[in-house]
Task: structure prediction
Amino acid sequence: MSGPDSGDHERGGESTDALSSDQPDAPSDRSDDWTASAGGGDDRPDGRSSPGRTDGSNAGSSSVTIEDDGVVRWFVRSDDDTVVFVRDIVSSVAIVAVIGLVLFGVSGIWPPLVAVESGSMEPNMERGDLIFVVDTDRFVGDDPAEGTGVVPLEHAEQTGSESFGESGDVIVFRPNGNAHETPVIHRAHFWVEEGDNWVDEKADEAVVGDATCDDVPTCPAAHDGFITKGDANSGYDQYRGGAQTDVVEPDWVTGKAQYRIPWLGYVRLFFDGLFSGLVVPITSAHTQVTVVTGLESGGVQSAIGGSLAVAGTSVSTALASER
Result:
């Protein structure tokens, strides 16, 4: 009895040992199968996807949809050609708007940029220059005229301050305060008060020559204000000058020039020529400048802005006209 039982036990033991010795091989085979399967991009034998699996059909493409991600996320991340084109336009407009708001915040006026179109302020402002203008109460120099933020030439000469190569602030104003007149950008030479005989008492003899107050229609001064002149002009705007205006009241002044960027104004001038087909004569007495904003609406200026004639100059909301 004991013999067979013992033999059976031994055979059973041998069978158990054999099975134990074969066990390591099975997982190894399955591992090899799974590795090969993963390398080929198939699922694991247990039904789970391979951890490093990459679906070649989705590589490099966008799966963003309006339904799953919402309109904003889809618009920002979509690689559709039409959406990308629209997104680029929106981005460009947004950048221009931000720059415009920053410039407005610094200058305090709108529009803050003008392009010089002709030459009565040469050599200190030349055709094609882009001029940044600010409100008269910004960046005020020493000894401004009473009640204003403008320092005229007669005051600046005493303090030694300069603006655009010479003493005195360069201002933008509407001749005779007329909103329908194109604005002018010239230098403020001196301040006069109502009733002043400015020709005989303050004017530069080299400018007025032998003229007396009786020879000048704007003398004596009808009100307080500035006597102005283009740097390249031979006469004051109030006498044989380019603007042909009365004494410039402070309320007529819309801004003062602050910085000059050479050449950049040609962009605006290009659009003027492209859209208007109108050529305004350029004379030493009449410098023309155009407003550069890119954000205005209406007619031609929807492309870049209104027009300014500067330095004997004119500024208009569309195109400057011959004066």
